[in-house]
Design a protein that fits this description.
Elements: H1 8-26, H2 36-52
Helix pairs in contact: 1-2
């Protein structure tokens, strides 16, 4: 299995999604508060998929 670096835009999207999840534990963000763990999990999943799939 060959791994590839994710594109910059994919990396930034994953960081923003994960960051929102972490940040919502510190301050109140209306939509994100109930789904903080899901936001962090989706961010990690996106980074994993971008590493495994070429061109993402």
């Amino acid at each position: 299995m060959r791994l590839s670096a994710p594109k910059k835009i994919t990396w930034w999207i994953a960081v923003i999604i994960g960051g929102l999840g972490v940040l919502s534990q510190l301050i109140s963000i209306p939509f994100v508060n109930g789904y903080a763990f899901a936001f962090v999990a989706i961010g990690f999943l996106l980074l994993t998929l971008a590493t495994l799939l070429k061109g993402l």
